[in-house]
Amino acid sequence: MSGVNLNRRQFLLLSAAFLAGCRSADDTGGPVAPSAERTVDAGPAADYAADGVYSRFQYQGFFLVRQGDKLFALSAICTHRRCRLEAETDRTFYCKCHGSTFDPAGHVTEGPAHRDLPVFPIVTDERGRLLVTIPPG
Prior knowledge:
Largest sheet: 4 strands, antiparallel
Helix content: 10-25%
Number of strands: 11
Number of helices: 2
Strand content: 25-35%
Radius of gyration: 19 Å
């Protein structure tokens, strides 16, 4: 059987490069792979009564945001290169990949992103639970 002969250093470098390409965006903040449409049960609507950003579903692709009598689901994925966003203490959002920032309503405040964050549909079911629909992509 013929094969490629690698020395230890070459093998380690090649392995590290391969593993870097396989990293999970959940762990690194890097680009998030597209996914199919899904519905997430975000729990009782009463859990989101206070104004603020609720980031418990950040790794499922969205933030819940309460502003007065409005409650909405905002994408947690940057519109520039699909990196995961971080919620800041001032209720804005920051992309650590390329520096884009978004206001509490999801509007771009600093690029390189040009598109605002998508708002996802929310319904409250008969049990009073919030169901958030995450579109494909």
